[in-house]
Amino acid sequence: MKKLLLIILTLAMLSSCAPVLNNELMSNGIFDMRASVLKEAPDMHRGKLFIMGGIIINTKATEAGSMIEAVYVPVDSMGFLKYSRASGSRFMALYPKDKGLLEPMIYSKNREITLAGEFLEARPGKIEDMSYTYPVFEIKELYLWEERAEHYFIMAPPYPYPPFYPSHRYYYPWYYNPWYYDSWWR
After folding, report:
1. φ, ψ dihedrals at 57, nearest 5°
2. What is the pTM of this model?
3. Three-class DSSP category at 97
4. What is the pLDDT of residues 3-60, one digit of tens each?
5. Which of 40, 90, 91, 161 is the most buried (most CB within 10 A)?
6. Which residues pair with 67 in a beta bridge?
7. CA-based nearest residue to 125, from 133, 114, 115, 116
8. Cα 104–109–113 angle (5° rounding)?
9. By residue range, what is the domain housing residue 40?
């Protein structure tokens, strides 16, 4: 019984350390994407596999497949996003039509992704009125992170203070009277 518990515990620990993308792609990919280098010498990097993260700006269906425009966020060796070094550069990632469609409602603005993509080209485009050259990648594997919940605090009578605010009405458990608060608020 102890051996079985030890095996289950070991497997749980090992599975929690698994990368988000395929191990083979993670080991063969380049983690440090420098957009300026890709724009200046696209022929030198064409066909190379890059591992990167991003925050989606826009997803649209095109004739070639689904096109994601995202802000680049570097990733660690397991594929987790590293926000401490987020850059202002953007990239485009093409999910080929033969692999399927990325639903724009699911892959929507501000969703986070990690992807393994093969560099295709540097394509001119626009960000509002400014000209911009996008590095374009073909997606080999894609991971969509869970949506972050927005936390809003409503200042209503049952909660006049934020949960972390030290309340002046703190009582020890032996002084606690649940009906006191109910009558106090009314």
Report:
1. -100, -40
2. 0.70
3. helix
4. 776 777 676 665 556 788 888 888 899 888 787 788 888 889 899 999 999 999 999 9
5. 91
6. 60, 94
7. 133
8. 85
9. 19-144
